[in-house]
Design a protein that fits this description.
This protein has six helices and six strands, in the order βαβααβαβββαα. By secondary structure, it is an alpha/beta fold. It has one domain: Maf protein (Alpha-Beta Complex). It has a six-stranded mixed β-sheet. α5 crosses α6. The chain is globular and about 50 Å long. The two termini are 14 Å apart.
Length: 203
């Protein structure tokens, strides 16, 4: 059971998902579905994507959430997440999306990961997700989740998004790209972060 200091309660009926990534919007929207809150994504509102100038997942999530909250005058929830590969010194880490290039070609990003760990016996990796919830007055709270596992090659499955097809969660035999979305929602790094957010702000 998660025990956290209680944060500011989210009482708004409308919440901005501060992302232009359709996969993230879909996954976060699914996690929010049980709660009586209307969600709208940043792209629908025409909100710009701020430059991710932070040096940590927390810093980038918070700057995105704050930018969306101040521009929309609504509470905003942002995610910064990525794949961390210890044998690569933690890369791609906060640069996970940049490895996919401006075209957001994650097939290319996955090939780069595989090329850089080629020959390594250690294929451990973990996903990190930080959810930042911000209010228009500048208040922001962040919640971190991690999911640990192994990298596989070639990519497996067409579900999920990003690096999901090359990641197998500890204790499972299917990649995130093969996993039923409902199952992934219960165990993923984003689900862990979301559980903490619920305990603190959606109680």
């Amino acid at each position: 059971m998660i025990s956290l200091p209680l944060g500011r309660r989210l009482d708004a009926s409308r919440l901005v998902i501060a992302s232009h990534n359709a996969g993230k919007v879909r996954e976060i929207g699914g996690l929010l579905a049980p709660f009586r809150v209307e969600v709208v994504d940043a792209a629908t509102l025409g909100l710009p994507e701020p430059d991710e100038t932070g040096t940590t997942f927390e810093a980038n999530a918070e700057l995105k959430a704050l930018a969306a909250a101040r521009t929309s005058a609504l509470p905003a929830l942002a995610d910064d997440s990525g794949l961390v590969v210890p044998v690569l010194g933690g890369a791609p880490g906060i640069f996970s999306a940049r490895w996919a290039g401006p075209e957001k070609d994650f097939a290319r990003a996955m090939r780069r990961v595989e090329a850089e760990i080629a020959g390594a016996s250690d294929r451990r990796a973990h996903f990190v997700a930080v959810l930042a919830l911000a209010w228009p007055d500048g208040h922001v709270e962040s919640f971190r989740g991690e999911a640990h596992g192994q990298l596989v090659w070639p990519p497996r499955g067409t579900r999920g998004f990003g690096y999901d097809p090359i990641f197998i969660h500890d204790g499972l035999s299917l990649s995130y790209g093969e996993l039923d979305p409902d199952h992934k929602h219960r165990i993923s790094h984003r689900a862990v972060a979301f559980e903490k957010l619920i305990a603190s702000c959606l109680r």
